[in-house]
Amino acid sequence: MSQFNLLRDFTLDLVHLFDETSSSEVDVDLKCGPYTIPAHKGILASRSPVFSAMFKNEMRESRETTVYITDISISTLRTMLAYIYTGRTNDLTMSNAQDLLYAAHKYQLVRLKNICSEFLKNNMNDQNVLRLLEFGNCFDRDLKDFAMSFIYNKVEEFSILEKTQEWQRFRKEQTELAMEVVSLIRDKNLNI
What whole-number distance in Å separates Cα of residue 153 and Cα of residue 61? Predict the structure, then answer.
């Protein structure tokens, strides 16, 4: 049997473990709002340093069988768990990629974070660059740097961007980051 077939079979076995209806041998419930998803501490801990620390240290989660997930949506949690169990992500959109990048950042899922960041970079445009710059500034340095480079190289007329409501909001809420952008554009104009 080829390596690919072995890997595919292994992934299918893990998909079966993740199937909420066949929750055999589960030893932890992930509680997200009114929803409960059964899971396996060993798999979660092996893929996420954050889950590993929860289950190995003297934290409440190591003694109890329920982990409360309060700051991501149930759909994001399900997508993150599907990735943890299978290594796959399906159907990324601009919205869920941002939510998933936040979750990947929080649970230190480096490869998932990179997948989401690449998706966001590939879908960056003049309309969403400021939002992605702000998001990257909080959660992913590579995304921030890409957004700054995008503004430097792709935004044709910064004066047009400056007149948008999005820039006005950005300038008020992200003053330091806005100053970085202005400095970048000023340097570009001086080099012309």
Answer: 47
Phi, psi torsion values for 45, nearest 5 degrees:
-65, -35
152: CB partners within 8 A, 6+ apart: 184, 185, 188
pTM, two decimals, is: 0.82
Which residue from 110, 106, 24, 100 is spatially nearest to 67, judged by alpha carbons? Answer: 106
Beta-sheet pairing, 35-39 with 66-68: unpaired
Among 49, 109, 28, smallest CA distance to 76 is for 109
With bands split at pLDDT 50, 70 and 90, how would you rate the model's confidence at 96? very high
Helices 129-139 and 175-191, axial angle in degrees (round to 10):
120
